[in-house]
Write a structure and sequence with these properties.
single chain, mainly alpha, 2 strands, two-stranded antiparallel ribbon, 3 domains, about 0% strand
Length: about 725
């Protein structure tokens, strides 16, 4: 057969369709096959080869007339296919890239903030963890109260004036007294309002005393202000031997520094002991801060609540411990001066003050209860000694008895730690539970309580895996688009321009179903099977297994859809008459290119990982530039080695962009929202850590376990003191 003549005739007849390269080759191939079939029929009727070819051409008619008919018949089809290609290039690819950046990298950056914030709770004194730069509109506010006037209530002595201004702005509120009490915790002679106007230390002292007396006028029954003044005056007026540094050069004696301040401090101490309650209102202020923050949905929102709660400082703890050392010192100084009645009156304040601290409604954190216990223990021990010197045997015996009971309750609480519960939390608890709960091992956590936090960790890990897959698909998409553009430039001179083959909806659906949906469903079912999936265990003990599982399903999600679409494109190119390379040649050059690209991506990933641990900006940039160089070298190698079949490789590169783009859209629009939904659900169910924080009005401590522990321990200490809880 004179196939070249048929080829030219078919090409001339289909020339009007060259605007759509795929359609042109398809129609040209059909016309050529039709002519060959005609010639074969004439040959079977007894005509020789030349006559058969001539008769076939004659029956075909004029190529120009055929070209006009083909153009007219395919005008609508060409327009639709053109719009589809334009929409894919102008809309689908950019949309996939934007979604991969915002949904993939954007969420990954927020999760890096979560990881760094969680690490800060574990190692508060260690180096600050690096956080991936946030995208516009996707950043996380370090201070969620920055836009609220509650920002003025920052727990800091340097912020005392702002707290006072907040109280002034809300002094007409029915509960304004809580803001003034909160202010008094951070105020001192150098931070009270108008302290800069003071001309000397005496005026500073007067200003501070006036502020505390004003608080007492606002809430006369609250011992907070008298206690604050007692601590202030006694710090200026005397030093107890327990406060002195230990050493042979330091005299281990009590000493009066300022008689006037000493006497004022004793008077305020006795006033405080007569008050019915002491209330710092710290938890009330904290609840107001938490209520002002929008309702949490995702992990970063809950961590913001935790950060606000953990930023609450308790400056009064150190002051109360100091007061516990000063009270016995005051009694000893008065005894030395022969003022036995005054000494006994001062020492009699020990039990009322201890009970005031224990009964403070803000005693919602374990450390606050332990400080109150330490103060009561110190005072009871020293009270027994002072009473012995005074000859008050009954009071001395009572103090010793209470001291022994307090110590016993504390030791019982410490030794009640449950090693089995510690092991259970370590094995089945979440990362946050393992961070916050070990100190509360004497308050057991059930498997049911640990499950939501643990499952939340697994969902977060799955989100990270999906985001990494999404970013790798975006890199593959950019790579195919870039490589297709290079082939376009290379092959333009050869008049064999690679074109874009958009797989039919059926082929694309099949690739996404088998390559994405099926692996995800299989993984989801397997990972949630009791006893098989391993989700009854936390990340701490089995993280290698979980990473291998996620890595395996991630690789399948990247490779399988591309493999299925590549097979379709290979068949389509073969059907369009495009010369295909031998399989061995394609595989040989392919694995070299893929190996170089994989090494580049691995280098970038390792550099990025280390950059999240420490600040290594220069090394990160250098590694990324090296990775880009490796990818560039791989591209040049591919263009050189595969030039002979450039039309096929160029068409393959341009056409593979479709599967990567639609895979990204599927993950971003369907999978990621589903994971976010599960994340929010597990967070709400977590009654130990995260979900507990969402109960802003009832929060007491960092976790529900701490709240239970504090309530129980405080009740036991009050019972030891002979009081009803």
């Amino acid at each position: 057969m004179q196939e070249p003549s048929f080829d030219a005739l078919a090409a001339e007849a289909a020339a009007g369709l060259k605007g759509d390269r795929e359609l042109y080759l398809e129609i040209k191939e059909e016309l050529q096959t039709h002519l060959e079939d005609k010639a074969a029929k004439y040959a079977s009727d007894g005509h020789d080869e030349e006559e058969s070819v001539a008769l076939a051409k004659k029956s075909f008619g004029s190529p120009l007339d055929m070209a006009a008919e083909l153009v007219e018949a395919n005008r609508g089809r060409m327009r639709l296919r053109g719009l589809l290609r334009l929409g894919f290039n102008a809309l689908v690819i950019p949309l996939a890239i934007v979604l991969a950046i915002y949904v993939g990298y954007g969420r990954l950056a927020r999760l890096s903030w979560i990881q760094a914030t969680t690490a800060s709770f574990v190692d508060s004194g260690g180096p600050t963890k690096y956080k991936l730069p946030a995208l516009p509109f996707m950043g996380i506010e370090e201070d969620p109260l920055a836009s609220s006037d509650l920002h003025q209530l920052r727990a800091d002595e340097q912020n005392a004036a702002d707290i006072h201004r907040y109280w002034e702005a809300h002094r007409s509120d029915s509960d304004s007294n809580i803001y003034y009490a909160y202010y008094s915790l951070f105020a001192n002679e150098n931070t009270v309002t108008h302290w800069k106007r003071a001309r000397n230390e005496q005026e500073k002292e007067e200003l501070y005393a006036a502020e505390m007396h004003h608080g007492e006028q606002l809430e006369p029954q609250n011992a907070l202000y008298n206690t604050s003044l007692a601590i202030y005056y006694l710090q200026k007026g005397m030093i107890a031997k327990e406060e002195r540094a230990k050493g042979p050069e330091v005299p281990q004696t009590d000493e009066v520094w300022n008689r006037h301040a000493f006497e004022l401090g004793i008077a305020e101490l006795q006033n405080a002991a007569r008050k019915p309650y002491l209330h710092t209102y710290q938890m009330e202020v904290l609840r107001k801060k938490l209520v002002a923050i929008p309702a949490p949905r995702f992990t970063e929102d809950y961590l913001q609540l935790l950060m606000v709660a953990s930023s609450e400082t308790f400056p009064e703890y150190a002051k109360w411990r100091a007061l516990a050392r000063k009270i016995p010192g005051c009694a000893r100084l008065l005894l030395a001066e022969g003022r036995r009645a005054d000494a006994e009156a001062v020492m009699d304040t020990w039990k009322p003050l201890s009970l005031l601290l224990m009964r403070d409604p803000s005693n919602s954190t374990l450390i606050k209860v332990l400080v109150a216990r330490a103060v009561a223990t110190i005072l009871s021990e020293k009270a027994a000694e002072i009473y012995d010197r005074l000859g008050a045997t009954a009071k001395a015996d009572e103090a010793r008895s209470l001291s022994a009971r307090l110590e016993k309750e504390y030791k019982d609480w410490k030794t009640a730690g449950n090693a089995r519960n510690d092991a259970s939390v370590a094995l089945h608890g979440s990362i946050m539970a393992n961070t916050l709960l070990p100190v509360f091992s004497n308050t057991p956590s059930t498997m049911q309580e640990l499950t939501p936090g643990r499952m939340h960790d697994h969902v977060i890990a799955e989100e990270v895996a999906v985001q990494i897959v999404m970013l790798l698909l975006m890199l593959a998409l950019l790579g195919t688009v870039g490589l297709g553009a290079l082939w376009l430039l290379q092959m333009r001179r050869a008049a064999a321009i690679p074109f874009l083959l958009l797989p039919p909806a059926k082929e694309m659906a099949r690739a996404l179903l088998l390559g994405l949906v099926l692996p995800i469903v299989v993984y989801w079912v397997y990972s949630r099977l009791p006893g098989i999936g391993g989700r009854e265990f936390g990340w701490r003990g089995m993280w290698p297994r979980f990473i291998i599982e996620l890595g395996a399903v991630g690789l399948v999600m990247i490779w399988l859809p591309a493999f299925l679409i590549k097979r379709y494109i290979h068949r389509r190119c073969e059907g369009l008459g495009i010369a295909l390379p031998p399989r061995k040649e394609e595989w040989s050059s392919g694995w070299k290119v893929y190996s170089i690209v994989f090494a580049a991506l691995l280098l970038a990933a390792v550099a990025l990982f280390f950059a999240t641990q420490v600040h290594v900006t220069f090394e990160l940039v250098a590694a990324l530039l090296m990775a880009a160089g490796l990818i560039g070298a791989a591209s040049r190698y591919a263009l050189k080695k595969r030039r002979e079949h450039g039309l096929y490789y160029g068409t393959l590169a341009r056409s593979m962009a479709a599967v990567y783009a639609f895979a990204i859209l599927f993950l971003a629009i369907i999978v990621q929202p589903w994971l976010l939904y599960n994340e929010a659900q597990w967070l709400r169910r977590d009654t130990i850590c995260f979900g507990y924080l969402a109960e802003k009005q009832n929060i007491a401590g960092f976790t529900s376990i701490e709240a239970k522990t504090v309530q129980r321990l405080n009740a036991e200490l009050l019972t030891a003191m002979g009081e009803k809880p």
